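Structure in, sequence out. Go:
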């Protein structure tokens, strides 16, 4: 048995998303404000903290607020007209979480209360947790009553002499959302329902299609997974270094769920002792020596207390108490080993100090250690505690409980939010590699199919994403607002991006592994041709004011080359990531030989990206004459754009003659754009060769041929580094094709930051005034 997927609807930015879960570890990745935290909060609220969750109207997707107010206005209009009140229609806007399990027929006895029909023969089983009104009809009455009371006072104020023209008094509640917001906890609750596996359908372009719940669907209680799934959580707010922590004693012995609140290591040790090691709890032969030692210590302490307090008690007796009939005082102790953990130095770190030939160990309390180590040790210890509580290790397994608590649930779900806090990169990678192993390190687990563990991690760390298999990554993508709606998100299962194309999947996954996984957290991406572009394009961004927006945004720079960039197309399409491809024209003749570009010579491009992705042209004359808008590919369904930037014709003046310069690579485009700079500065290596070409050539055609020959010997990376050494960085002008591409990308990023949709030419389609 395992959880195959969850669907979240109408919850914050997650209007309708499906998240497939891996059998072991699932990792949520995505840019800031893409919905990862919303997904973790939804699972926490609906699965872990149903009774304690602080749901509010803010958890409803914002695009539903106007329809809620329209519903309230319809109630008011019907009442004012003495018409029959329309029934409340809350279903389309209510937040919910659908959990879909997959169970075999042999496990029917475990899931019998979740089976929808008598002919179920194994497969999917679905449960919906929905936030809904406790009594929709009563909510309607209460709202209308509150509106009537407010309107009476407003009307009275409007007729008073103190009223100012146009300054009408507006009292609470002015709308249904305002009424609900103030009284939310009393008005709403979470209920659960059985879903129909036959109505489970696949998402379309990342948008889930959750089934509609019938009005007469029976509720199945508040704990449908009790005895079936144990759920534990480590939240992002762990409060390391704090002395005080939230008192969470109420979840001390909860069999099904447990959450991680602010807690010191010593407090975790104390709780672990109480659950698994306390000798006073169902003692066994191994506890005899400890119990005997505690009893002896208690007697010795009692004797010392009686001796020490004897004089004081005698003095009290001298005051007439106790009398003949009064009970006498006796001082006795009760020693508990766990009390030894209730102090600041319960957990210490040993610091060795060498004094001559001897070593001395010095001790520091736990809050004197770095936050990174506190975080790592605490999380690992919590995972061990979750595992042992699930498997009922030690005293918790032999304590007196009813049969439902004694039964070990077959499924353990663990949620970890942003484990990277305070951890340096290597430790982040170690943690994500070891976390699942820790959760399975028990003699009854290992490769067991009867007891499964599923770990869900949300992260902003590219280093954690780097350590995860591609099939484990779930990408949260921001969707811009359209049609006067608010921005939302969708979720992409990266394991399904390439379908049956195993070669492309292998190349992309390996490439991402050997570079970095920043692509999954970026606002936009720039693919560049080679090391020279990788060095110089960010340099141009830093030193040109019109590109400041890019310097302040999360941009991923990937050196991929024109011959391989197109292999990332499927990944970019699924990520919906605005992408600029800076590549080379790479002209060739009919013999497939690289030649300088020329018009009317029947030349083609060798660049696979230009041929097969964007703009999907191979004729050199066509590519040279394409307008900037024709180099953009816009996907209306995914609502994002990709643009190619390659060398464009330049009108330059060289040796007193105005001519058109056709460039083939970054280097010759740099020379043509900066002729005066190269003519005035000396250099070595490729720089020297290019300067010699400028000095010796008589016209642009001769210069192009000389540059083409100079570039055959390489040295491009060294050339780019020499350009970085210029005293005035602004003296180096970006080639026009790069500048045009970066300007386009800057405009795209500005629009994306406002979460709005854009047309193929980059023109704003819809102005979004409401923030998500």
């Amino acid at each position: 048995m395992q959880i195959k997927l969850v669907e979240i609807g109408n919850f914050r930015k997650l209007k309708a998303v499906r998240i497939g879960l891996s059998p072991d570890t699932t990792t949520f990745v995505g840019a800031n404000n893409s919905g990862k935290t919303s997904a973790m909060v939804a699972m926490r609220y609906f699965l872990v903290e149903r009774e304690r969750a602080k749901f509010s109207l803010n958890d409803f997707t914002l695009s539903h607020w106007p329809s809620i107010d329209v519903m309230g206005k319809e109630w008011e209009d019907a009442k004012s007209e003495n018409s029959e009140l329309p029934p409340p229609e809350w279903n389309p806007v209510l937040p919910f979480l659908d959990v879909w399990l997959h169970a075999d027929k042999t496990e029917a006895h475990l899931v019998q209360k979740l089976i929808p029909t008598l002919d179920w023969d194994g497969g999917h089983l679905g449960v919906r947790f929905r936030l809904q009104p406790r009594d929709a009809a009563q909510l309607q009455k209460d709202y209308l009553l509150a509106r009537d009371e407010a309107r009476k006072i407003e009307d009275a104020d409007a007729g008073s002499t103190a009223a100012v023209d146009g300054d009408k008094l507006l009292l609470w509640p002015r709308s249904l959302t305002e009424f609900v917001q103030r009284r939310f906890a009393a008005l709403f609750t979470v209920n659960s329902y059985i879903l129909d596996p036959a109505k489970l359908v696949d998402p379309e372009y990342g948008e889930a299609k959750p089934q509609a719940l019938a009005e007469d669907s029976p509720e199945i209680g508040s704990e449908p997974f009790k005895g079936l799934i144990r759920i534990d959580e480590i939240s992002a707010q762990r409060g390391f270094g704090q002395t005080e922590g939230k008192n969470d004693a109420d979840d001390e012995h909860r069999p099904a769920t447990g959450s991680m609140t602010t807690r010191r290591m010593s407090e975790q040790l104390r709780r672990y002792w109480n659950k698994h090691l306390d000798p006073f709890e169902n003692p066994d032969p191994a506890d005899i020596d400890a119990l005997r030692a505690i009893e002896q210590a208690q007697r010795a302490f009692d004797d010392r207390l009686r001796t020490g307090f004897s004089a004081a008690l005698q003095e009290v007796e001298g005051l007439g108490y106790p009398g003949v009939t009064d009970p006498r005082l006796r001082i006795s102790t009760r020693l508990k080993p766990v009390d030894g953990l209730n102090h600041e130095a319960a957990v210490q770190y040993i610091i060795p100090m060498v004094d001559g030939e001897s070593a001395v160990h010095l001790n520091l309390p736990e809050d004197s250690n770095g936050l990174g180590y506190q975080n790592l040790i605490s999380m690992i210890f919590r995972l061990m505690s979750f595992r042992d509580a699930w498997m009922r290790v030690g005293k918790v397994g032999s304590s007196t409980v009813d049969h439902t608590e004694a039964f070990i649930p077959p499924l353990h779900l663990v949620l970890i939010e942003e484990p990277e806090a305070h951890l340096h990169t290597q430790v982040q990678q170690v943690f994500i590699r070891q976390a699942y192993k820790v959760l399975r390190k028990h003699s009854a687990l290992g490769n067991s199919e009867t007891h499964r563990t599923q770990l869900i991690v949300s992260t902003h760390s590219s280093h954690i994403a780097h350590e995860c298999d591609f099939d484990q990554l779930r990408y949260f993508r921001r969707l811009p607002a359209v049609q006067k709606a608010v921005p939302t998100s969708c979720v992409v299962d990266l394991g399904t991006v390439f379908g049956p194309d195993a070669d492309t999947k292998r190349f992309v996954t390996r490439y991402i592994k050997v570079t970095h996984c920043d692509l999954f957290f970026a606002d936009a991406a720039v693919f560049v041709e080679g090391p020279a572009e990788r060095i110089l394009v960010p340099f141009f961004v830093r030193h040109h004011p019109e590109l400041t927006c890019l310097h302040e945004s999360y941009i991923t720079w990937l050196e991929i080359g024109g011959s391989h960039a197109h292999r990332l197309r499927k990944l970019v399409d699924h990520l919906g990531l605005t992408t600029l491809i800076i590549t080379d024209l790479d002209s060739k003749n009919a013999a497939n030989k690289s030649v300088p570009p020329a018009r009317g010579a029947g030349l083609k491009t060798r660049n696979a990206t230009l041929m097969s992705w964007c703009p999907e042209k191979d004729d050199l004359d066509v590519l040279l004459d394409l307008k900037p808008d024709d180099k953009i590919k816009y996907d209306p369904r995914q609502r994002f754009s990709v643009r190619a930037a390659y060398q464009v014709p330049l009108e330059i003046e060289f040796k007193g003659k105005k001519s058109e310069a056709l460039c083939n690579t970054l280097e010759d485009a740099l020379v043509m754009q900066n002729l005066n700079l190269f003519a005035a500065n000396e250099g070595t290596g490729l720089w020297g060769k290019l300067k010699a070409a400028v000095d010796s050539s008589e016209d642009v055609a001769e210069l192009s041929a000389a540059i083409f020959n100079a570039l055959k010997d390489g040295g491009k990376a060294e050339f780019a580094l020499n350009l970085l050494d210029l005293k005035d960085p602004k003296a180096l002008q970006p080639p026009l094709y790069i500048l045009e591409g970066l300007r386009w990308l800057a405009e795209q990023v500005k629009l994306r930051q406002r979460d709005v949709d854009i047309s193929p030419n980059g023109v704003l389609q819809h102005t979004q005034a409401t923030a998500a």
